[in-house]
Amino acid sequence: MSVEINVTGEVVTAYLKGEIDHHTAREMRETIDSAVELNMPSLLVLDFGGVTFMDSSGIGLCLGRYRNLLKSGAELHITSASPNIYKVMRLAGLEKLAKLSKEKTNENNK
Fold it and tell me: pTM for the full model?
């Protein structure tokens, strides 16, 4: 599990890699939250392109970041999710809270 943070202007992109479960989600949350607090972005992109497995902790990770962003009015985009992860996110209703896509967007091309 790892998180690579990239800051471009008012966009913070978190590239998530590995498995997201109860044991790894905490460190991911802390890394992402630190970057958001330091940079105060207008957009946070969570790139799931490197995620190989996700349980409900991944949904919690997204929901928590969404709630934190509400305070500043920033947006959340979730991109590069595998078909299975994308399906789980849709079933959880994340597309009602964040822009959800299977492919990379211009904000997170790397």
Answer: 0.91
Task: Enumerate the H helices of 3-54 as residue ranges.
Answer: 22-39
- Give the separation between CA 97 and CA 68, rounded to whole angstroms: 12
For residue 15, give the H/E element and its range.
Answer: strand 11-20
- Spell out a b/e string for 6-27, using b for 16 or more CB atoms within 10 Å of the CB, else e: eeeeebbbbbbbebbeeebbee
CB atoms near residue 44 (< 10 Å): 26
pLDDT in tens, 62-74: 999 999 999 899 9
Which DSSP string corresponds to 48-105?
A: EEEEEEE-HHHHHHHHHHHHHHHTTT-EEEEE---HHHHHHHHHTTGGGTSEE-SS--
